[in-house]
Amino acid sequence: MVIPTRRRETRLAFALEALAEQRLDASRFEVIVVRDGDAAEPLAQAPPGLAVRFLTRPGVAGPTAKRNVGWRATAAPLIAFTDDDCRAQPGWLESLLAAAGGGVLLQGRTEPDPDERALLHGFARSQEIIGLSGWYETCNMAYPRELLERLGGFDESFPFGGEDTDLAYRAIESGATPVYVDDAVVWHAVMHRSLGRALREAGAWSQMAGVVARHPDLRDALYLGVFWRKSHAALLLALAGAAVGRRRPAVALGAALPYLELRLNWRSPSARRLARRLATLPAWAAIDAVEVASRLPAAVRNRTLVI
């Protein structure tokens, strides 16, 4: 199995400790960790009893290139992928192996780490996958080696974001079948973010138009076949309503309601929670606006409408 990592050695140590607890006999798998060339001490070490190879890719690269280095360094017939901010549960590899077979790619269940779920508020982020997601995130995926070799692995023209989705769709288009493995569970960390970091990350995920241009069937995973997030559609509707708000305030209010309901979630009654969401509403609108704006150049460049 392969873990790309960059400057998250404490998180990586947690990930390795979890892998040391796998029910699958330790002699049946190895872990390959791939770091960038500028990795600095102190570095996470392998827990007792866990076979780990630490590789270094020269220079600095996104996770795409490091994943390619990792899977090509092993002869294992099945390659599992996870990330340095994830903790695989004891039955993870055992469940993936039980579901493996010719011509399948496997996606396991991913949920926010229960030890950190209480921190999932404000601008914090995590990951929840409880079925075939349509995006095939490599926090919890497994591919037959033969399939990776045939496809050439991850496309490094997508250095950060979209590379996992692209690989899965190339696999499906080649005849492979995606299979969801509910018992292959990974806990994903809850990552605290300042507003500044959230805005920077909002502008970084701009590759999806290129992936959709290459794989048109991916539109089925988009909201209304166009929007990466439902909040993007709701925000644009609210802005359109605001443009006519001076003359038609009722129209403006009606247009804003879907966004307000989405971001405030007033159906979940809690005065404290509602007050907290009201306080962060302008910031979330800014984050959604940056996400929309960052996707427009790629949409124009690829002649593919993805917002």
- Principal-axes shape call: globular
For the secondary structure, the number of strands is: 8
Share of residues in helices: 40-55%
How would you write the strand order of the largest sheet? Answer: 4-7-6-8-5
Order of helices and strands: EHEEHEEHEEHHEHHHHH
Q: For the record, give the distance between the C-alpha atoms at the N and C termini, rounded to a whole number.
A: 34 Å
What is the residue-averaged pLDDT?
Answer: 93
Instruction: Indicate the CATH architecture of the largest domain.
Output: Alpha-Beta Complex
CATH C-level label of the largest domain: Alpha Beta
Task: Write the CATH homologous superfamily of the largest domain.
Answer: Spore Coat Polysaccharide Biosynthesis Protein SpsA, Chain A
Number of domains: 2
- Unreliable parts: none
Report strand %: 15-25%
Coarse structural class: alpha/beta
CATH fold assignment of the largest domain: Spore Coat Polysaccharide Biosynthesis Protein SpsA, Chain A
The largest pleated sheet is described as: 5 strands, mixed
What does this structure look like?
It is built from 10 helices and 8 strands. The chain has 2 domains: 2-192, Spore Coat Polysaccharide Biosynthesis Protein SpsA, Chain A (Alpha-Beta Complex); 230-302, no CATH class. It has helices at 9-19, 63-72, 92-99, 145-151, 163-173, 195-202, 208-214, 230-243, 249-264, 271-302, and strands at 2-4, 31-36, 52-57, 78-81, 86-88, 104-112, 141-144, 177-188. α6 (195-202) runs parallel beside α10, α7 (208-214) crosses α10 (271-302) and α8 packs antiparallel against α9 (249-264). β1, α1 and β2 form a beta-alpha-beta unit. The strands form 2 sheets. A 5-stranded mixed β-sheet has the order 4-7-6-8-5. Strands 1-2-3 form a 3-stranded parallel β-sheet, covered by helices on one side. By secondary structure, it is α/β, with parallel strands linked by helices.
